[in-house]
Amino acid sequence: MKRALLALKVLALGTVAFLLGAWAATTGNWGQPLATVRIENNSGQALRQLELHFSGHAATGMLSLPALKDGEHVVSKVYVAGEAGYKVRAVLVDGTVLPELEGYVEAGYRTNEVVRSNRAISATGNLPAK
């Protein structure tokens, strides 16, 4: 009888903890989908450096992405609580620093950026995820 009562208490405590966690996740927007930024190198040469800087309500940071060869791409996913701005910084293998591309995403958005030899441009802009 003591074991059954203890098991019932543990079950009740676990249920309360789960419900509180679910409430916190919902009100804190923890369940929002990630924003996806796809960056493609069509510059005619390899990249020496590629960075994705992002700044939003929940997080600010920088991702150092792989130095892409010409024709390659990388997909990066970032957590965005609501909306955020981002910048793509690319340096060509010859040392040319391209002008930073700035963009905007919301949770669940996907965007496709293309690095060209003289600048980085947005190919498709911000698209809500399907």
Describe this entry's structure for a reader.
By secondary structure, the protein is of the alpha+beta class. It has one helix at residues 2-27; strands at 35-41, 47-56, 60-65, 73-78, 83-92, 101-106, 109-115, 120-128. The chain is 20% helix and 47% strand. The strands form 2 sheets. Strands 4-1-7-8 form a 4-stranded mixed β-sheet, with no helix packed on it. It folds into 2 domains: 1-31; 35-128, Domain of unknown function DUF5300 (Immunoglobulin-like, Sandwich). The protein has 1 helix and 8 strands. The chain is elongated and about 75 Å long.
Overall body shape: elongated
What is the name of the CATH architecture of the largest domain? Sandwich
CATH class designation of the largest domain: Mainly Beta
How many individual helices?
1
Find the count of extended strands (DSSP E, 2+ residues): 8
> What share of residues are in beta strands?
over 45%
Quickly count the domains.
2
The CATH homology group name of the largest domain: Domain of unknown function DUF5300
CATH topology of the largest domain: Immunoglobulin-like
Q: What structural category arises from helix and sheet content?
A: alpha+beta
Radius of gyration: 21 Å
For the biggest sheet, the summary is: 4 strands, mixed
Query: Which segments are poorly predicted (pLDDT under 50) over 5 or more consecutive residues?
Result: none
The helix content is: 10-25%
- Write the H/E string, N to C: HEEEEEEEE
Question: Could you report the average pLDDT, rounded to the nearest whole number?
Answer: 84
The end-to-end span amounts to 53 Å
